[in-house]
Amino acid sequence: MSEPDERPAEPGRPAPRPDTGPMRFFSGPPGPTPPPGTPLSAPPPAAPGFAGDRQPAAPVPPPRPHGDARPAGEQGGTGVEGRIAIEDAVVARIAELAALDVRGVVALSAPPGDGDGGVRVRTRDDEVTLDLGIVVAYGSVIRDVAGAVQENAARMAGLMLGMRVAAVNVSVEDVRRPPA
Predict the structure, then answer these.
(1) Rounded to two decimals, what is the model's pTM?
(2) Total structural domains in the chain?
C-alpha cells in the first residue's frame, strides 16, 4: 500500500485528496457481522432485551378452492354470506395469457378433441386440469417451449385461482415464423 501523495499540486492540476484510496463496495448497516454460514435471508439475531417485543406472524390461511361456498364466518370475510364462482372461461383465459407470455409461442391452437380454441379446462373438486394447443415459432426448441408453457400456465393458474393444478397437457399443433 502506498502513502498519500504529499507533493504540492502542479499548476493547473488540483491537489491530491487525502481521502483517496480503495473504497469498500458495500459498507452495509453498522452493527455486528453475522457468523459465516448464516443465510442472507435469516433474520438478524435479536438485540438483548428486545426479544419479547417481537410478535410471531399470524398464520396465513390456505387459499380457498375454485368455486368454494362457505359461510362468511369461515372465510374470514366481511360477514356477508354468499358464493364465489370462477367460470371455466376465466380459467382458460388465464392459461391462454400464461402460454402467450412464453417466448417462442406464436399463438394458441385447438388441442386434440377440442374445436373451441386453444385451451380446455376440466375442474374436479378443488383441482384443475388444463389442455393447451400451441403454435411454436420456427427456430425454437419445441420441447423447451412446451415445458415453459406447462410451468408458466400451472404457476399462474395456481397463483390466481388458489387451486391445485393437477396437470397441464401441452400439444404442439403447428410451427410458424413469428410475426415481424
Answers:
(1) 0.56
(2) 1
